[in-house]
Amino acid sequence: MKFEVDVDSPPDEQPTAKPFNRWHPDIPAVVEAEPGETIRLEALDWTGGQITDNDDPNEVRDVDLTQVHYLAGPVRVEGAEPGDLLKVEFHDMGPLNDRSEFGFTGTFSQQNGGGFLTDHFPDAAKSIWEIDGYTVSSRHVPDVRYEGKIHPGLAGCAPSQELLEEWNEREQELIDKHAEDPSSIPNHPTGEAEPGVANPPTTEGAQMGEMDPDEAEEAAEEAARTVPPREHGGNHDIKDLSIGSTVYFPVYVEGANFALGDFHASQGDGEITFCGAIEMAGYADVEFDLIKNGMEEHGVDHPIFEPGHRGPNFEDYITFCGYSVTEDGEQRYIDSHTAYRRACLQAIDYLKKFGYTGQQALHILGTVPAEGRQSGVVDVPNACSTLAVPKGVFEFDISPGNLDNRADRGDLVVTDDPLG
Fold first, then answer.
1. Same domain, 182 and 273
2. Same structural domain for residues 255 and 229?
3. Which of 142, 257, 300, 361 has its CA 20 to 30 A from that of 234?
4. Which range marks the domain in which residue 389 is found?
5. What is the pTM for the complete model shown?
6. What digits encode the pLDDT tens for the residues 156-167?
């Protein structure tokens, strides 16, 4: 059995089962699987085809974020009950090369959600990547070519009604707190064009799979957005959940109702441009099994995973350090968020010395299999975060002392009209 997509058709006009873009316990399963059975799940790219293979960054600027993400499923696993752990093994995955041969990376406009470094890169930009098997390269980011670590950015089981209501309540409390006092939210920008702190339910852009239309409209009023990760799984964007990985998802509803999507040809830890991986339409061959009463037996109510051992296997890295001190010199206390920002900004400034622009460097860090670490969280007042960039992704030596490799490497096209 499998879940198929047509990349040339809009999400709501798929010829077989419709994908869905909200979490709700009543979205009906469209695929069934027995424990021990392997099925293929295909998914559109996370925007549902809003980004095309051209040089126009306005496509990224104008993305309708109420629509995302588009998930394959749900899959009902026979015998799955609340309290079980759903064991999901990723046997194979890849791009839909017979139907879609490119991927894309975007810097979101600050007015459309921004990103990790939106105060440094407030305008939209786009890079297109050619996907040749597992190898990626881009006309917009020259002299970078490497084997990516393909993975689904998003996977999980349906929430129970009780868990859904808990999500909505706690996230609304955060929204209300921010509205009352924006400065009270740590690590969140408080500028004029700031991104939101959470995404509450909205019927706008909601696609509820194969639900009855009347029931779907009512359910969409409380259905959770797919944007963040939560207890059930969701949008973790963990680059190491690739071929050969095994993930154990908590089961909250009968049948589990598993789904996945948001395929990436490659990504660096943190997906720091927000639309920061190499986004693509893709497939995964997954095998299901059950650990009965696994949540209680193992004391877990969040996913756990065992990474696979498929490459790329880089040996040489250049590693950048960041500490809990903002760019303006403000000392923070054991702030790993600030420390990772500083490590990323150090890496961007370094790559600019070799001829890349800041936007190109940002897209490099968001897409190559860079390793992010919380290296130290005990030495007051500074946390130490590190970002290790694999040297082998470049077609020249980026080690210190090799600035003779500097060259004009062009630029990404950046929109000059952030508001559209």
1. yes
2. yes
3. 361
4. 317-414
5. 0.95
6. 999 999 999 999
